[in-house]
């Protein structure tokens, strides 16, 4: 049967096998870390939950299998469309001068939006085009900042409160931090943070995410940069999509 998504469903963790940092953002839109972590069983679970499209927010050079990733047969992918929709221009010196090697702080989200409006419009166009097929999961590498930027914009469109938007970022940051505790960080620029370090940092960064979307005005920003209103409405409908139980 079909039910409206109750408040408790927004931001709930998703238990697809192998998925790291996977959450429902709103309605029929999910977020997670790199898709290569999912097992064959995990992809079946995502399909059973209604997902039909994967939107990859990474740059193309990042999408590669690691030796530690599960082996997944090609048949597990057959039912999904995978769409590349990066949130930034790889190697752009203007952005790197602000963020360093990669985006890892919501204080830099406004610069991402200023420099790459066409990229963010492309993400939302991908969501709009995917909506008729079913639900959508978007992902970056950690499932924290590029996913966090887009997730905050989606939550803004969905009418979430400041606290819900801040909590969305904090949950994802805690999720990948826990991954670093159990599996180690992927490189020397990341490390596991203790609660004493993480708590104050996330308080500040949650507020920065809220400030970003409230100053941005997601709907006005996307329309001003060329997303057709009909496509924006499709994304909004997806964010309010009812779920099957």
From TrEMBL:
<feature type="domain" description="Tyrosine specific protein phosphatases">
    <location>
        <begin position="118"/>
        <end position="153"/>
    </location>
</feature>
<dbReference type="Pfam" id="PF13350">
    <property type="entry name" value="Y_phosphatase3"/>
</dbReference>
<dbReference type="InterPro" id="IPR026893">
    <property type="entry name" value="Tyr/Ser_Pase_IphP-type"/>
</dbReference>
<dbReference type="InterPro" id="IPR029021">
    <property type="entry name" value="Prot-tyrosine_phosphatase-like"/>
</dbReference>
<dbReference type="GO" id="GO:0004721">
    <property type="term" value="F:phosphoprotein phosphatase activity"/>
</dbReference>
<dbReference type="InterPro" id="IPR000387">
    <property type="entry name" value="Tyr_Pase_dom"/>
</dbReference>
<dbReference type="InterPro" id="IPR016130">
    <property type="entry name" value="Tyr_Pase_AS"/>
</dbReference>
<protein>
    <recommendedName>
        <fullName>Tyrosine specific protein phosphatases domain-containing protein</fullName>
    </recommendedName>
</protein>
